[in-house]
Amino acid sequence: MTKKKETETAQETPAAEEPAEISAQTEPEAAQQQLEEARAQAEDFKRKWYSVSAEYENYRRRTANQNAQRYAEGRADVVCKLFPIADNLDRAVKSCAEEKTKQGIEMVIKAFEKILEEEKIVAIQPVGEQFDAEKCEAIMAVEPREGESSGTVREVYLKGYEQNGKVLRFAQVVVVK
Q: How far apart are CA 153 and CA 169, in angstroms?
């Protein structure tokens, strides 16, 4: 029986060492696999972070542009409310007989024009040009004079204004038939 125990013990010892060798070999492989998984997960998080960061930056730029545009449109709306006052001042200059009063009104008009210039608002001056429905509104059609072609703007009844290519107020014009 002693020999039998020795044989059993001898057989058990290599068997007991064998799983330790297998686990010793798989431990580095398992650690390597975990490391690769962690790297892949980190790369995935990094990619998602870049994506969210880019989305936020685009959102920030877009809202900043929208706010700037709304602000500019609000300023233009306020200036548009002053157009009728400028029209009345132009009529007052044309009908004014007293020179000093006329000079005073012209100074006010120049101040208004300076404000328009600062806001990059320009008057639409279509006299002598072909009628453009995108900038003008025809209020009257008249018979042509000698040398005038059909569809030409003869006179501006009410000034029009535009800012950066956008019409703020259409010019009211008299057009040749």
A: 17
Angle at 33 between CA 32 and CA 35, to 5 degrees: 65
Cα–Cα distances in angstroms (integers) from residue 154 to residues 26, 83, 144, 145, in the given order = 95, 22, 9, 10
Q: Among all chains, which residue has been given the structure tokens 């009104």?
A: 105
List the one residue out of 166, 162, 170, 141 whose CA is nearest residue 153. 141
Q: How many CB atoms lie within 10 A of CB 170?
A: 19
Here the tokens at position 106 are: 């012209």
Look up the pTM and report it: 0.64
The ranges of the chain with pLDDT < 50 are 10, 13-16
Q: Which residues pair with 137 in a beta bridge?
A: 172
Rounded CA gap, 176 and 143, in Å? 6
Residue 175's Cβ-count burial label (10 Å; 0-12, 13-18, 19+) is: buried
Question: Which H/E stretch holds residue 28?
Answer: helix 2-80
Handedness of CA 6, 12, 18, 19 (dihedral sign): negative
